[in-house]
Amino acid sequence: MKLENNLGTDPIRPLVLRIAIPSMLAQFVSVLYSIVDRIYISNIPVIGETALAGVGVCGPVVTLIGAFASLIGVGGAPLMSIRMGAGKTEEARKILSNSFLMLCVCSVALMAVVFPLRQPMLMAFGASGATYGYANTYFTVYLCGTVFNLLALGLNQFIICQGYARKGMISVMLGAALNIILDPVFIFGFDMGVAGAAVATVLSQLASCLYVLRFLFSKSVPVAVTFGGYDGRLMLRILAVGMTPFLIIGVDNIMIISMNAILQSYGGAELGDRLVTCATIAQSFMLVVTMPLGGISAGTGTILAYNYGARRRDRILKAQAFIAGLCAVYVTLLFLAARLGGALFVRLFTTEPALAAEALDAIHICTLALIPLGLQYAIVDGFTGMGKVQLALPLSAFRKAVYFIALFALPAAFGARATFYAEPISDILGPVVSIAVYALAIRRILNFPPSPPAGEGKAPLPS
């Protein structure tokens, strides 16, 4: 099979674009999984608004489960790219086989652990007596597809890291397109309501999973899935590298869960469910921002990883500068979209004037500091791509800590609606610290000969 991209020799700018754009589009389309569900659910007659609040409670929990795919996929893919860049194909193959086993075991374990705990989880995460039934119905069906979800998302990283960004995009778009088609069929055609939305999502994830497995088990891919060579220390190394993206996704969703719980608490019986509905709409817009942004910054991490393994300082610096520029352009466009088209986005979920106005205000507040957020993603995912967890993880943790402090302090001082300001506060302070750390650390990180070693094994491989 002909390589789509040569990570070590192709010109940097076209190479970054050929990987960033499909990765961004794949993540953008994957947002449709949740947003399309929410749009259709919000338009169910009579129960739409309440059902949307219930599914909104499920959203972060569902994504939190999916974060385990990043723990293993984004943990193993950079290590695999580094080994491929150093010409160590057998080591790369071993990383993939260990990652595949970990994804299989993790998905089964998650179902076994989460299923009996779903009721207390959903109630603790912001469900009310009125919304719990819808949340439980959606979440119970969704859990049945955990294996498909984790394999599709996690293994997709190993397609992209071998240079097949378009194949990775197709796997995601296949599932998203199928979800768009099946949602109205199951929700309205079969009159299954919220359960129908979950069934459509699970079937869509199954389609993506089968596509990814077929590709990675083929003999034509440079590094295919094999069995054997399992190594506990290697698994721990994969988990260590994947811990940063895992915590980023996981804590992001804990932040959303906490916001929903705080909105219920400070909003009270009359305002709580309404504010959770507004938060669900605002969070849906933020998914349009952060998931494609992560597609740019994390998807192109394979370029940094490969060239880090090949010891190509010049290519790494060029790629990082261009990736940061792409991230800045994307978030600037989304900042403008929030101001100019936010009302149109809100109308997809509700036409009630008061609710729509409140949801639009929430979007405007949450997107106040999008532009510095783009640089945060580029820096943290860049460090992750090069395996520098000791830098990426604290930078991510600092931004989350700022968010949590603001999340609990603001509503206590100014009321429930002030909760939304926690997002822009963290999106300013986090990037400021990340930029400072990058400026101080990048020279030391790239302090190796600019050309590859003369022969394999003559110099230690960067870690």
UniProtKB/TrEMBL annotation:
It comes from the Bacteria. Keywords: Antibiotic resistance, Cell membrane, Membrane, Transmembrane, Transmembrane helix, Transport. CDD domains: MATE_MepA_like (cd13143). InterPro entries: MATE_fam, MATE_MepA-like, MATE_MepA_subfamily, MdtK-like. The chain crosses the membrane at residues 15-36, 51-74, 95-117, 137-156, 168-188, 194-217, 238-263, 283-309, 321-342, 362-380, 401-422, 428-446. It is a multi-pass membrane protein. Its main location: membrane. It is found in: Cell membrane. Coiled coil: none annotated. Belongs to the multi antimicrobial extrusion (MATE) (TC 2.A.66.1) family. MepA subfamily. This is Multidrug export protein MepA. It comes from Oscillibacter valericigenes.
